[in-house]
Amino acid sequence: MAKAEPVTISNLDEHQMKASSKELNPSCRAPYQNLNPTPLGLCAFALTTFMASMYLAGATVLVTASLGVVMGPALCYGGLVQLIAGLLEFRNGNSLLGLIFSSYGGFWLSFASLNISAFNFLGGYSDSIALNNALGVFFLAWTIYTVLMLLAVLRINFVTIGLFVFLIICFILLTASKFLQADPNLQ
Asked: What is the pTM assigned to this prediction?
């Protein structure tokens, strides 16, 4: 019996194909391990929320100070990292946490982009009353969304319920402060 000619596929002979078979054969790959992105998402949310709350409450700096220091973590850590954690939760099949982390990642991305002057999203508001009303509506929408998320997590655990209760309080206070700043009679 004559020796068979080696098979050549795109300049690879039989021996080179065996050497690279792990890359070509998906069944030889290491199995996907479910990663738990929940701690990453919670840390991204907690740190960014703490920093923004300290600034917005005037606990560490003047209330009129620029939010510039908070916008870096809001954009990168609270926004991007939390969005990635949400996408990983979706991949793991956890739709609720995927929705929560992705949505609040979007919140931090939008909040940061509203406050970064290079984007100039708020440049169209010449008077502060209209600007504060618009920001009040922004925070009101997130208050309503957070109430809906509280209803969705009622069956999870008390810690998560507590987190959303305090988050609702935070959004109510942010909404009220913007609407109060918009009304000159209440200032």
From this structure: 0.77
